[in-house]
């Protein structure tokens, strides 16, 4: 509900920033020399609130502001685990995006493939909703899948009969919806989540869904890798990268290919401010900042590369 999300941002942002400043021992923002903010892609209303706040904060502190591409920030958070060695291949799987990137050197991202409809996280969440699991459902499918057995013949892996690196997960969602309808699973209310009370066939279904999504991501990643000879690191990031099965399979795949595998720790996979700050610093260290009139970018549009040179930058 985008309208509610924006209002909640407005209601909570100032007290959240103030408590973060308190915790950092800088209650009035002293010593802060850069303000980084998510510029997009995302929900426009929420982005506008954050950007207006960050611009005001930057004027008050007399510190430059930098608008960060949220998808790039997710991938750069792999650096929190160990340094990304370039060239790298980036797999970004979140609630709104499923993108494959060639990352030839720091701060450069070339899109190789993307979802044509639902993102991987969206597929997890919509399927979880069909099963009456709590929101956002990816985490719950992940947990239940650990207690189930996947049947790889139940659903076909979506959108593989082509030679591209794009994704389409909406067909899988429909196939699961038909299956759930046939089995009358939807009548059971699992919102009070307890693994022990959930039927084995739901756990098996979760394992199958999990496996189908993971295998699809893996197959397209394999194709992307063929387009990028010389890659040294496989970076897996975004909210869905917290998925235990996905991490295991990608880690094994990277090892098999002789690549370094990096994913942020699970608590840095989902949206977080640390990754935005880190991406902001990465660009600022190249002497860049954003002009004061930079705009929010909604989901589905490209974030322009319109940084300007920071006139006060010193190496
Ligand atoms: O990156 P993120 O926090 O927000 C967006 O930028 O969209 O990703 C949120 C997504 C949700 O769809 C959520 O269900 C999914 O990440 N997610 C998971 C897991 N934890 C979060 N999906 C699968 N397995 C998980 N363990
Ligand atoms: Zn995100």
Topology:
Elements: H1 2-23, E1 35-40, H2 44-61, E2 65-69, H3 70-76, E3 88-93, E4 98-103, E5 110-114, H4 120-130, H5 138-145, H6 170-183, H7 200-226, E6 233-237, H8 244-257, E7 260-262, H9 273-284, E8 288-289, E9 308-309
Parallel strand pairs: 1-2, 3-6, 6-7
Antiparallel strand pairs: 3-4, 4-5, 8-9
Bound molecules: 5'-O-[(R)-(carboxyoxy)(hydroxy)phosphoryl]adenosine and zinc ion.
Zinc ion binds at residues 70, 74, 94, 238-239, 271.
Description:
The structure is a single chain. With 315 residues, the protein is α/β, with parallel strands linked by helices. The protein has two domains: 111 residues, 2-Layer Sandwich (Nucleotidyltransferase, domain 5); 182 residues, 2-Layer Sandwich (Nucleotidyltransferase, domain 5). Helices cover 42% and strands 13% of the residues. Helix 1 packs parallel to helix 2, helix 3 packs across helix 9 and helix 7 runs parallel beside helix 8. The longest helix has 27 residues. 5'-O-[(R)-(carboxyoxy)(hydroxy)phosphoryl]adenosine (KG4) binds next to helix 4 and helix 5.
């Amino acid at each position: 509900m985008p309208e509610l999300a924006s209002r909640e941002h407005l209601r909570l942002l100032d007290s959240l920033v103030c408590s973060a400043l308190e915790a950092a021992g800088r209650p009035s923002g002293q010593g802060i020399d850069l303000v980084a903010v998510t510029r997009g892609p995302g929900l426009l209303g929420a982005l506008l609130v954050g950007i207006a706040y960050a611009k005001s904060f930057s004027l008050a502190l007399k510190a430059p502001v930098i608008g960060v591409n949220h998808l790039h920030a997710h991938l750069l958070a792999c650096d929190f685990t160990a340094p990304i060695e370039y060239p790298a291949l980036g797999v970004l799987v979140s609630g709104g995006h499923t993108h494959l990137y060639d990352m030839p050197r720091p701060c450069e991202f070339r899109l190789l493939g993307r979802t044509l409809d639902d993102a991987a996280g969206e597929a997890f969440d919509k399927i979880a909703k069909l099963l009456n699991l709590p929101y956002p459902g990816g985490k719950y499918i992940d947990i239940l899948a650990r207690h189930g057995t996947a049947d790889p013949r139940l659903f076909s892996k979506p959108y593989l009969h082509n030679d591209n690196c794009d994704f389409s997960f909406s067909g899988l969602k429909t196939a699961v919806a038909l299956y759930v309808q046939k089995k009358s699973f939807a009548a059971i209310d699992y919102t009070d989540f307890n693994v022990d009370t959930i039927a084995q066939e739901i756990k098996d279904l979760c394992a199958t869904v999990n496996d189908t999504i993971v295998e699809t991501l893996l197959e397209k990643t394999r194709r992307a890798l063929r387009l990028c000879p010389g890659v040294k690191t496989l970076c897996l990031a975004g909210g869905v990268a917290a998925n235990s099965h996905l991490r295991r399979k990608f880690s094994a795949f990277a090892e098999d290919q002789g690549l370094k595998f990096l994913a942020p720790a699970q608590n840095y996979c989902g949206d977080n401010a640390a990754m935005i700050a880190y991406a902001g610093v990465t660009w600022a260290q190249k002497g860049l900042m954003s002009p004061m009139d930079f705009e929010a970018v909604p989901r589905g549009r490209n974030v322009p590369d319109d940084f300007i040179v920071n006139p006060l930058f010193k190496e």
